[in-house]
Specification:
Length: about 375
């Protein structure tokens, strides 16, 4: 299985190398270092109230990590980039494991933080938290990361108790051409990525990408091998298009796979009743997301978004298969020039199948969950 994902990533890399030239040159990214303090306060964000607003007008403790910030930081993954955000607690627990939270209460299974990538919630219902090693993309393709330190559950759901992290990737028209990257570092770390962007029809653009990495095992407390080496590969695509009536369409998807090593403590029936063994965990999955939006007027916009996601997690202790279908529709409109209304409805279906072992037992190993939600917010100007 892992060979398949590496082959997918290699295929994307080969396509990038063979691309002769894009149809259009890449659009010049906004250089935030050239902006004044007043201009920086007017940078638009969307995560606080689900509508574009400047940082100055957003009633929350919000921080924006731009693409330029990420590039200058030298970060190689989304969790590493979040180390530079004030108010976030970021700790690395292994070569592939991260513990991230806002306002304290941090642990490997922190579950009070809502995390999204392009509006797709990436938390797992297994413990209502995030397995950070399963979610990655080319950092070059990230437009910005918006971080809210504080509750945002009224708009974003019950997980947003301590904060919201919203990763927003670039439009495909801003990633035209060929991009290649490779690196090697201490700790037996090897990483490579490739991306190619082009045009799709008259008003459409696309990109395809692949990324692969290997990290050697960390050193254990006793000085030995921590057995937590990590091999991962992923490939994906994104298509953006506009329609004649002002419709904006987006379609994206990705497939990933990884092998994660660990040293696990397994119980036994004989003395000393437990033993430390090297374990190998296989994780793989796919997702597809589609969205459509239209501006009915300058003060009225509707958007519909849906995604499907499948992940499989397997080692000697546990095996979980999970399928998620999520749909959401919302509307932003201004009424009487003083009421900025945001409302929406959503539905989610989640099904899991867990293989029980002698170590873990569940009351219901095959479970389906249904969730229907709605929200309404009115921001009034006096």
């Amino acid at each position: 299985m892992m060979r398949y994902y590496i082959a997918v990533a290699s295929l994307f890399a080969a396509a990038s190398v063979l691309g002769i030239s894009p149809a259009h040159a890449s659009a010049r990214a906004l250089d935030y270092t050239e902006l004044s303090l007043e201009q920086l306060m007017q940078v638009e964000i969307t995560s606080v109230a689900k509508r574009p607003a400047s940082v100055l007008d957003s009633p929350a403790a919000v921080y924006v990590l731009t693409n330029e910030d990420i590039r200058r930081s030298g970060a190689r993954s989304i969790p590493e980039a979040l180390r530079f955000v004030p108010g976030l607690n970021v700790a690395r627990t292994s070569s592939s494991g991260w513990a991230i939270s806002a306002r304290g209460d941090n642990s490997s299974f922190a579950n009070k933080l809502q995390v999204m990538i392009d509006g797709r919630s990436i938390y797992t219902p297994l413990f209502s938290g995030v397995f950070w090693d399963r979610h990655d993309t080319l950092l070059e393709d990230i437009e910005r990361i918006e971080i809210i330190r504080g509750p945002g559950a009224s708009l974003w759901g019950a997980n947003a108790v301590n904060g919201v992290i919203n990763v927003i990737t670039k439009n495909a028209k801003d990633t035209q051409g060929t991009y290649l990257s490779a690196g090697y570092g201490t700790g037996d770390e090897v990483q490579g990525s490739a991306r190619y962007g082009g045009t799709a029809g008259r008003n459409g653009h696309y990109r395809v990408y692949g990324k692969a990495l290997y990290e050697g095992a960390e050193q254990a407390i006793d000085g030995g091998d921590g057995a937590d080496d990590w091999l991962s590969a992923r490939g994906g695509f994104r298509v953006d298009a506009t329609g004649p009536e002002g419709d904006v369409w987006q379609l994206q998807g990705a497939s990933f796979g990884s092998e994660v090593g660990s040293a696990g403590i397994l119980p036994s029936l004989s003395a000393p009743y437990s033993s430390t063994q090297e374990l190998e965990t296989d994780v793989y999955g796919q997702y597809a997301l589609a969205s459509w939006s239209r501006e009915l007027s300058e003060t009225n916009k509707i958007e519909v978004r849906g995604y499907v996601q499948r992940t499989t997690f397997e080692d000697d202790r546990l095996r979980e298969e999970r399928n998620i279908i999520d749909l959401e529709a919302d509307q932003n409109l201004t009424v009487a020039d003083r009421h900025q209304i945001v409302w929406g409805i959503g539905a989610r279906y989640s099904n899991d199948n867990i293989r029980e072992t002698d170590i873990y037992r569940f009351g219901d190993a095959d479970d389906s969950q249904y969730l229907v939600n709605g929200f309404f917010q009115d921001t009034m100007s006096f």
